[in-house]
Amino acid sequence: MWPTTVRARATVGACAVVAAALAIASYALLGFLGANLMRNAEDDAERQALTVAQLAADGKLDQVRPPAHGADFVQVVSADGRVLLASPNLAGTQPIRTANPQRPGTLFHTWRVRPLGGEHHQRVVQITTDTPQGLVTVYAGTSLREAEAADDTTTAALAIGGPLLLATVAMVTWWVTGRALGPVEAIRAEVAEITDRDLHRRVPVPPTHDEIARLAQTMNATLDRLESSGARQRQFIADASHELRSPITVLRTQLEVALAVRDPELWPELISGALEDIERLQQLTVDLLLLARIDAAQPAPTVRLDLASLVRDATESRLGDRVPVRTDLAEGIEVLGSELWLTRVVTNLLDNAQRFADGRVDVVLRTTSGPGGRTAVLEVTDDGPGIPPADRERAFERFTRLDDARSRDHGGAGLGLAIARDLTAHHGGTLTAEDPTHSTHSTDFTDSRQGARLVVRLPLAQTD
Fold first, then answer.
1. In the sheet where 73-78 sits, what is the strand order?
2. E-strand spans in 49-155?
3. Which of 148, 177, 203 is the last residue of a domain?
4. 3-state secondary structure of 440
5. Is the CB of residue 456 less than 8 Å from the CB of residue 375?
6. Distance CA 76, CA 93 (A)
7. Beta strand 73-78 with 83-86: parallel, antiparallel or unpaired?
8. Helices first, then strands: H and E counts in the chain
9. Which of 268, 295, 322 is the endpoint of a domain?
């Protein structure tokens, strides 16, 4: 039975709140109005009763005048039940009460007094006082006609106005909610029609600058990211297919030549070339799988690592490098991360430096202080041709070769720096290509200021 739409739930909720508030306000209003009118009736009757009681105490009952404005009747009864005085409208009637009080005092009652007839109650004030004839009781009453009429009128008005007010609230809430949710329905309908082939479409943004407008803007931003991600994925697949096609074609050619050649002496050379292409395929496959894992945002286990020790191990484990690597590593630098992934970052940077260096590769590790706190800075510098300033950001794009022919000769697929940057970003750091002339190496460590300079910045692990 509970409504299933936001519009209906909002309407029911608004009506329920208004109904509860209206009920509480009506109850309070009727109570306040009744109490106020009752107090006015008591005051009128009490003034009349006090006046008569004072005359009775002075032995001057014969001077009592007819009830003043606001009082309907007066009756004076002796202790033995005799009516000593009565207003004309109670002439010849029995005492209002048969029980005679035993001591002086004032009491308030609400009765329906028979002699006066009618359907309205009387508010009666009973005052017992001493007189020369003994105890007498003065009864003074005033009609509650106005109080009961006002109560009836107010109740009728609330009974009619309450449902009308609730109906108005329901209609206004239904209309306002419908107007407010109209753009949401338009957004939903547009998103429902967007498929993986229509990611260029965008949802309408209402000109209201409210939460719904911000929702539409966020949805469009999400669609922008999805479209960009889809484009990158398609480009990645195309680039990967292109990169895999070349070694597969060469491998097939070598195997076909080996099959066609009958001279066994040529087979080792052909097989060696095939193995090189297989190794290249294997490395390319590993890189593609790693990129897929990075894109899937699969977290790697993080531990506290000694970055200097990690860089030293990664450098010393490289056997057969074409160019010797010189290191200057500050000790005591600790970061949080994956040892495997950070080692891969260092390895990829060294591979890139070895690929283009003429005769020198320098690795420097230090710390710097900035607005975000202390940071570990790892620099890998070579003395090769360097990276032109206009291409320093493009060098980190996947399958990008700044010198395509030379990169192919050196065996690069254009994934090393892209993988290194993505892995660094997963550790909350950055990887950039910077001007080698701004290097902070000591002059006795670096002989020149040319080549490429790749800088990794990682946040330091918090000290306990």
1. 83-86, 73-78, 134-143, 122-131, 105-111
2. 73-78, 83-86, 105-111, 122-131, 134-143
3. 148
4. coil
5. no
6. 12
7. antiparallel
8. 8, 12
9. 295
pLDDT tens string 190-213: 888 887 777 788 888 888 777 888
- Residues 284-324 pLDDT 10s: 788 777 777 776 666 667 899 999 999 999 999 888 788 99
b (16+ CB within 10 A) / e for 414-432: bbbbbbbbbbbebbebebe
Specify the 3-state DSSP secondary structure of 19: helix
Residue 272 is encoded by which pair of tokens?
A: 């060696």
Asked if 329 and 314 count as a contact pair (C-beta separation under 8 A), the reply is no
Question: In 3D, which of 456, 463, 393, 453 has the Cα closest to residue 426?
Answer: 456
- Asked if 337 and 361 count as a contact pair (C-beta separation under 8 A), the reply is no
Cα 60 to the center of its chain, rounded Å: 83
> Residue 267: what pLDDT?
76
The pLDDT of residue 19: 92
For residue 350, what are the contacts with CB-CB under 8 A and spacing of at least 6?
A: 314, 315, 318, 321, 325, 361, 363, 380
HSE value, Cβ hemisphere, 13 Å, CA-based, for 439: 28
305/340 Cα distance (integer angstroms): 11
Phi and psi angles of residue 47, each rounded to the nearest 5 degrees, phi first? -60, -45
Q: Determine, yes or no, domain membership for 182.
A: no
Q: Is the dihedral of CA 318, 323, 329, 335 positive or negative?
A: negative
Strands 325-329, 361-370: pairing kind: parallel
In angstroms, how far is the first alpha carbon of the chain from the final one? 57
Query: Angle, nearest 10°, between helix axes 145-193 and 6-57?
Result: 170
- Do residues 244 and 313 both lie within one domain? no
SS (H, E, C) 8-67: HHHHHHHHHHHHHHHHHHHHHHHHHHHHHHHHHHHHHHHHHHHHHHHHHHCCCHHHCCCC
What range defines the domain where residue 452 resides?
A: 303-459
- Among residues 375, 386, 396, 402, the alpha carbon closest in space to that of 436 is found at 386
pLDDT at 372 over 50: yes
DSSP code for 64: P
The three-class DSSP label of residue 196 is coil
Output the CA–CA distances (angstroms, integers) from residue 257 to 18, 152, 268, in the order listed.
89, 111, 12
**pTM, two decimal places:** 0.53
- The CATH number of the domain where 141 resides is what? 3.30.450
Cβ atoms of residues 45 and 142 within 8 Å: yes
Task: State the Cα–Cα distance between residues 349 and 344, nearest whole angstrom.
Answer: 9
Lookup result for tokens 């607005």: 371
Residue with tokens 């020198």: 360
Instruction: Evaluate whether residue 139 is within a structural domain.
Output: yes
